[in-house]
Design goal:
Layout (H helix, E strand, L loop, with lengths): L1 H6 L1 E4 L4 E4 L7 E6 L10 H19 L3 E6 L7 E2 L5 E2 L1 H9 L3 H18 L15 H13 L3 E4 L2 E4 L1 H7 L10 H7 L16 E5 L15 E3 L3 H11 L3 E7 L3 H16 L4 E7 L2 E3 L2 E2 L10 H6 L11 H9 L7 E2 L2 H23 L10 H13 L4 H19 L7 H18 L13 H17 L3 H13 L4 E4 L2 E4 L1
Parallel strand pairs: 3-4, 3-11, 11-12, 13-15
Antiparallel strand pairs: 1-2, 5-6, 7-8, 8-9, 9-10, 13-14, 16-17
Helix pairs in contact: 3-4, 5-8, 5-9, 11-12, 12-14, 13-14, 13-15, 16-17
The chain binds one RNA strand through helix 2, strand 5, helix 7, helix 9 and strand 14.
Length: 488
RNA sequence: GGUCUCAUGGCCGAGCGGUUAGGCACCGGUCUGCAAAACCGUCUACAGCAGUUCGAAUCUGCUUGAGACCUCCA
């Protein structure tokens, strides 16, 4: 696996290009991914990012890296809205639902956990929350002030962007130039306490109606949104670690400000590799809460999105996402989901066929090269769609062996079985299809199909077809294959 | 308005200068009592216009169109 580790190349947003992945400590990876803000149930678009980083996590694990994967849960923090006001979105949701802030967070955290299980995502090593790390956030803010990159005004603390720019490059990640921003962004309004439009809040003085308030050296208040990630990543992964990930939409200002906070407090960019997952689209437009074009993962499973005629399993949705690269947009359409459903079925059928194959003396095709193509795809910036294409090539060959048109040796067969299982289940995170049917139905179907089999033996096609048509009405499809009749 | 990204066959979606991406659909075939399913095969596209090159989907310029960020967002 070490040899494969050395082949891994990652697209680093910081550099704008792919680079060989060299961890700070050989064989170990520290990875931080910005998690959800739990003021509502995560929608399918949110899930895409987490599923993509789950893929990355899984592949790093398969390569034998010892990975510490930290993904936070935002359960506090003030953000700046379009009107330039500092807003507590969780507090707002709490008021709307007439619950306490922590009730809101807990309610949606439970749902998020459930979704992670359904979509077969491995749990991160740690899922820290912002509210558990207020002290760490305060300490970092104090450090930034001590270093001269932040100032206090009336119980709030702001990052001093102009001062920071004298020593560091603000915009290093997003490519933004502050002087360009200046003309285009909202201007300071009269009651604004910031010295400069690009300054951002590290700590915000409490409002009388705030639901959550913490003590600080600057009085009672709330942390800013960006500082929590700096505090938690530093605490669990150190001042510098390997990979920082998140959605494309967090690049600016969230990640840019994280870099500023880390540089402003510890003097270094927190992560060597910044990775950004692209958005999930609906009709060519980003799925988002504010556009209203979103739907919930549960609605896909239930077929209640209102957009599609039928439901799709979590496995199908996951496979669908694996057919697009994590850095590309992906359009969520019914045709595409149907195609994924059929394709997945073809792939899982071949996985089952593989178990039944019989080995011959020699192989008629290059199995090690085929297996190597799986690694080559994933080593190239986690190119899952290429991996899937190569798995379909394997599928074709498996079927040809099954038909006796190709042959495979015993060692090659063992290798292929092992690696197909690794890439389909461990890396892509697809699940073996559950039996699906109710257990009581199984003996009933055995009986019915046995009777139909007798009719067929007697060439009593009328009875045989009557049974088949009747079952079809109940949604059960009967298939007559070479090795007997199956149903689903 | 600024910054940036992208435009691929009926649909989704890889591709980073020369090789069939792949899946779905369509079509042809095998199998089958019929059907369905399954399997095999076929289908050669890169928004437009110029340019660079022996050679361009891939590089450059322009045009057109779409999207993202600039405000919370995964």
């Amino acid at each position: 696996m070490k040899a494969q580790q050395d082949q891994l190349v990652i697209y680093n947003t910081l550099k704008g290009e792919k680079e060989p992945f060299i961890p700070l400590v050989e064989g170990k990876v520290g990875m931080y991914v910005c998690g959800p803000t739990l003021y509502s149930e995560p929608h399918m678009g949110n899930m895409r990012t987490f599923i993509n980083f789950d893929l990355i996590y899984r592949y790093l694990l398969h390569l034998g890296f010892e990975v510490k994967y930290v993904r936070n849960i935002t359960d506090a923090g003030h953000i700046t809205n379009s009107a330039g006001q500092e807003v507590d979105s969780i507090g707002a949701a709490a008021k709307a639902e007439q619950l306490q802030s922590l009730e809101i967070v807990y309610k949606y955290a439970v749902k998020f956990q459930e979704l992670q299980r359904i979509y077969n995502m491995l749990p991160p090593s740690i899922e820290p929350t912002a509210t558990q790390h207020i002290q760490e956030q305060i300490e970092i803010i104090e450090q930034i002030i001590a270093n001269g990159y932040a100032y206090e005004v009336n119980g709030s603390v702001y990052f001093d962007t102009r001062r920071y720019m004298q020593d560091y490059n603000y915009g290093i990640l997003s490519g933004r130039k502050v002087d360009e921003l200046e003309n285009e962004t909202r201007t300071l309004n009269a009651q604004d306490e910031k010295r400069f439009f690009a300054d951002f809040a590290l700590w915000k003085k409490a409002n009388p109606d705030d639901m959550q308030i913490w003590r600080s050296p600057w009085g009672n208040g709330n942390p800013g949104w960006h500082i929590e990630c700096t505090a938690m990543s530093t605490k669990y992964l150190g001042k510098q670690f390997d990979i920082h990930g998140g959605g494309m939409d967090l690049k600016f200002p969230h990640h840019e400000d994280e870099i500023a906070q880390s540089c402003g407090s510890f003097g270094c960019n927190p992560a060597r590799y910044w990775m950004h997952a692209n958005m999930l689209n609906v009709n060519g437009q980003k799925m988002s809460k504010s556009f209203g074009n979103y739907f919930l993962p549960k609605q896909i499973l239930e077929g209640s999105t209102g957009l599609f005629e039928k439901s799709y399993s979590a496995n199908v949705v996951r496979f669908f996402m694996m057919q697009a690269h994590y850095r590309s947009n992906l359009d969520f359409t019914q045709d595409a989901l149907n195609a994924a459903e059929k394709g997945l079925s073809k792939l899982t059928d071949a996985v089952a066929t593989l178990e039944r194959l019989e080995a011959k003396e020699t192989s008629s095709f290059d199995v090690p090269a085929l297996v190597q193509s799986f690694y080559k795809a994933m080593n190239d910036d986690f190119n899952a769609p290429i991996l899937v294409a190569n798995l379909f090539e394997a599928t074709r060959l498996i079927n040809l062996v099954n038909d006796g048109k190709e042959q495979i040796s015993a060692p090659d067969l063992a290798l292929l079985k092992e690696k197909i299982a690794v890439f389909v289940f461990d890396v892509l995170g697809l699940q073996k299809e559950a039996a699906g049917a109710e257990s009581r139905l199984v003996p009933v179907m055995e009986l019915v199909l046995d009777l139909r089999g007798q009719a067929r033996t007697n060439k009593d096609w009328t009875t045989s077809d009557q049974i088949r048509d009747g079952l079809a009405k109940a949604g059960i499809v009967v298939k007559d294959g070479k090795e007997g009749t199956t149903w689903s």
